[in-house]
Design goal:
Layout lengths: L2 E4 L2 H7 L28 E5 L2 E4 L4 E5 L8 H13 L6 E5 L16 H28 L6 E4 L2 E4 L5 E3 L4 H5 L6 E4 L17 H5 L15 E7 L6 E6 L1 H5 L3 E7 L2 E6 L2 H9 L2 E5 L8 H10 L6 E6 L10 E9 L11 E7 L2 E6 L4 H12 L6 E5 L13 H13 L3 E4 L2 H6 L7 E9 L5 E10 L2 H6 L23 E8 L17 H15 L4 H6 L7 H12 L10 E10 L2 E11 L5 E11 L6 H21 L4 E2 L2 E2 L17 E6 L12 H18 L15
Parallel strand pairs: 4-5, 10-20, 18-19, 22-23, 26-29
Antiparallel strand pairs: 1-9, 2-3, 3-4, 6-7, 7-8, 10-13, 11-14, 12-13, 15-23, 16-21, 17-18, 17-20, 21-22, 24-25, 25-26, 27-28
């Protein structure tokens, strides 16, 4: 059934404002290259900040979220195009620049589609309604006697057609409606179809501009030798050899290290290598991974803060079986393929930046604060990003570029080396998980307790001690869909000087590893099949049960396995979506591990672009397997040891398993997909390893030589 969207004034402001989902109708933000002069005859119809239609018929959609490789450049455009009834081949897409009138532009938390689902459809429907109204007025008929299709308005009485381009002037004079009708899902022509991504051709042919590609006339190039210890400083530095290098223009100390400015990025890198810096180690010179782990381990002897309690704890029964285990995960870096970079131009008290950022408004605010400017004097143009994974939500590199441009009096293109990118990240915190479960005499789960011990990202960001009610690491530590009579989650925060940040799926990357691995341990103790044990804990009509069943069926779960082969299962719900993975692995006689296949079942509600969903599941597995099999950030002497992909490796093409994705089709509210699969990848893998070897992996990354 078609949906008519009508709001009170208060609801309208809430939904279409910065505090709501981020769209503001009846406002137009002129983009670079299009500024309508006062008195000009309108040649562009722009009823809101997200769309403009030219008299040529070209439709431009301005996407308010950052394209990091996850596909929002296409999927968000599909939402607008569906309701606008426009020829998909005549759409142009642009990135939005930083401006509060676009609403919240932060890209993270698998929210891009979820938060834009209704507002961006309203954007398209609003423009279509106004174009139809303009055509009806010209024909002197009612709008109900008109329809729209493929970028034209059709007179249903006479069959006459008017292209959108011919109506832009008339439509521009109309008031913006506050109530528009949205399409019934059964009438969708674009949403739900497998649409090829709009950004792919430009990336294939080298035409797409990433942050690292942008240039300005007269710009200079810079890099930074960052302070190697957390909380350290600079005692002194000698740049004599650096400045003697032909093409190096300057070397200067800034708050984060020593910057080298040169005539090319390569010369800046070479000059950096010739610096002689006497670093101040600071108060954290003795901090190490071992000292941080010791502080976490000490919390194992404490009860932790009570965070969640479901059900009533019964007295221990005489024949109860008790299962206990401790799991661990390490610090992780983001390691995006494109290192941190930003092009900044400070001129006449204003700054323009071109940055591959996940949060242009945060960059705008931070740069304005650092340079003591008004926010409106800072503009951030969002570029394509070579990966983000949460790292580009922090904006330290943008501030550095702006400061260097002001210092040099010229545009500055700042590029970090790979080593600087790895050693000066905002890291995913380590964690220790203490789990205890009980089974009744029939082998059914009676209780589950999960104690999470970890540093808090929110506490690090705010530099404020958190109240237990606001502990940020609860996600995925308990699967609420499991019908276990008693479940309890406790937490302990440890402090660390290591910079912390949001890593793809945040704590839902660690917690499900521990939980879903431990559920397998409980199933083993109950002498039950791992799939059936989970199945029996889930409600009959549960969406999680549905994907769990699909994954088991599609993987041929009950098929016999030959020696050295293993199969493991895991499931999770998060971001308004549900998924289950089955991993299959092989180990040779020397215990060399090969991951053969992942079978994925995903229910993310109404699917906008199946192509994106499939790609995101593949991406989750590639990203999470790299971490599970290979990655660990090691802190020594107050700094990070790893520097490049030789010491912080990623999965190779040859190591990537076959991935089968099975998407549940329904019309339920849309969910997020970019992060959900991260948390189930590692437990499915480790459960498969146990199936093949009888060895239980409780510490990541996987090291079978250290497992009994």
């Amino acid at each position: 059934m078609a949906e008519r969207i009508k709001h009170t004034r208060r609801e309208f402001i809430r939904i279409f404002s910065v505090g709501g989902s981020g769209l503001i109708l009846a406002s137009y933000v002129p983009l670079r290259g299009f500024i309508q002069k006062k008195g000009d005859t309108p040649k562009v119809f722009a009823p809101n900040v997200f769309i403009r239609i030219e008299s040529s018929g070209l439709v431009t959609v301005i996407v308010p979220r950052s394209e990091l490789g996850q596909g929002v450049f296409t999927s968000l455009t599909m939402l607008v195009a569906e309701e606008l009834e426009v020829d998909w081949e005549k759409i142009k897409v642009e990135n939005a620049f930083s401006d509060k009138r676009f609403g919240d532009q932060n890209t993270g938390g698998s929210t891009s589609i979820r938060r834009s689902w209704e507002p961006l459809r309203v954007v398209g429907a609003t423009a279509k309604t106004m174009l139809i109204t303009a055509a009806a007025a010209r024909w002197k008929i009612t709008p109900s006697d008109c329809s729209a299709e493929m970028g034209v308005v059709v007179n249903k009485i006479s069959g006459t057609k008017l292209p959108y381009g011919e109506l832009v002037e008339d439509a521009s004079k109309l008031p913006v409606p506050t109530s528009v009708k949205l399409k019934d899902p059964k009438d969708y022509k674009i949403i739900g179809k497998k649409i090829h991504r709009l950004d792919t051709p430009g990336k294939l042919y080298g035409e797409a501009l990433f942050g690292i590609d942008h240039t300005l006339p007269g710009m200079r190039f810079a890099t930074i030798s960052h302070i190697p210890t957390f909380g350290g400083g600079i005692k002194s530095f000698d740049a004599t050899r650096t400045k003697a290098l032909n093409g190096v223009l300057d070397a200067t100390a800034i708050s984060t290290g020593v910057a080298v400015i040169a005539e090319s990025t390569w010369l800046a890198f070479m000059g950096k290598g010739l610096l002689s810096v006497n670093w101040e180690p600071g108060p954290n010179a003795n901090v190490s991974s071992e000292s941080i782990r010791n502080s976490m381990s000490a919390k194992l002897r404490e009860p932790g803060e009570m965070l969640t309690r479901i059900g009533t704890s019964a007295m221990p029964q005489k024949n109860e079986t008790v299962i206990e285990a401790v799991y661990e995960t390490p610090f992780l870096a983001h390691a995006a393929m494109e290192p941190m970079n930003c092009l900044a131009h400070f001129k006449d008290g204003k700054v323009e930046l071109w940055a591959p950022t996940q949060n242009p408004q945060a960059a705008q605010t931070a740069v304005a604060r650092a340079l003591r400017l008004k926010e409106e004097d800072v503009t951030v143009y969002v570029t394509f990003s070579g990966g983000g994974f949460g790292r580009r939500g922090d904006v330290d590199y943008a501030v550095e570029a702006a400061e260097l441009s002001k210092h040099a009096g010229k545009p500055i293109k700042l590029t970090w080396t790979r080593e600087e990118d790895t050693r000066h990240d905002f890291y995913r915190p380590p964690s220790i998980h203490q789990l205890k479960g009980t089974l009744n005499e029939h082998g059914k789960p009676a209780s589950l307790r999960h104690h999470v011990i970890t540093p808090s990202i929110e506490e690090f960001k705010s530099q404020t001690k958190l109240d237990p009610a606001h502990y940020d690491f609860k996600g995925g530590a308990i699967e609420r869909e499991y019908q276990i009579p008693f479940m309890e989650l406790t937490g302990s925060i440890v402090t660390t000087p290591v910079p912390l940040g949001y890593w793809r799926s945040v704590y839902r990357s660690q917690n499900p590893f521990a939980l879903e691995s431990f559920v397998d341990e409980m199933a083993l103790a109950a002498r039950k099949d791992a799939f059936e044990f989970r199945r029996d804990m889930l409600p009959e009509k549960s969406r999680l049960l549905n994907v769990l069943t699909i994954a088991a069926q599609k993987s041929d779960w009950y098929a016999a396995l030959s020696k050295g082969h293993g199969r493991g299962i895991a499931c999770a719900s998060a971001y308004d979506s549900y998924c289950a993975f089955v991993a299959e692995i092989t180990l040779d006689r020397k215990d060399n591990l090969k991951v053969d296949r992942y079978v994925c079942a995903i229910d993310c509600g109404l699917v906008v672009n199946p192509d994106t969903v499939e790609a995101q599941m593949q991406s989750c597995i590639a990203f999470a397997l790299s971490a599970a099999l290979k990655q660990r950030i090691t802190v020594r002497n107050g700094g990070v040891s790893e520097g490049n992909f030789d010491s912080y490796p990623i999965l190779t093409y040859e190591e990537m398993p076959k991935v089968e994705v099975h998407i549940v089709q329904n019309t339920l509210p849309v969910g997020g997909i970019g992060e959900l699969g991260i948390g189930v990848t590692a437990p499915a893998l480790c459960n498969a390893i146990y199936s093949a070897t009888g060895k239980r992996v409780r510490t990541l990354p996987v090291d079978l030589t250290q497992v009994n």
